[in-house]
Amino acid sequence: MKTENSISGKKNHILHPVILAVPAAAKELTPKERVKFLSRHARRALEMSAEKSGIRLDELQQDERNAPLPFRGTYWSIAHKNEYVGGVVSPLANGRWPTQLLQLFSATGRQRKRC
Known about the structure:
- There is one protein chain.
- The protein is an alpha+beta fold.
- The protein has 2 helices and 7 strands, in the order E-E-E-H-E-E-E-E-H.
- It has helices at about 30-55, 95-115; strands at about 1-5, 10-15, 20, 60, 70, 75-80, 85-90.
- The strands form 3 sheets. The protein has a 3-stranded antiparallel beta sheet.
């Protein structure tokens, strides 16, 4: 669903970020294998975001600094931490907010555990 934003004249787009918990078994992996697993798991979250957004993923490419390169006008981003991974596709550049979402989600998860 898209609506006109009367302030900027740009279209507003509904985003579908996906955050997935990391299975406990991943903690048993070696650090190198864990990073590979987290990256694959984050790409699963990205695939789910694309599906919810009605976007077909193309080959995911990165620049020389490993920053995601857009495809067909679609920006994408993944993030992974030890407990959660996340991914999102967007028609607009989204910067670092998937990482920020994971930080927020992790913080609220820690608060829930304390209760």
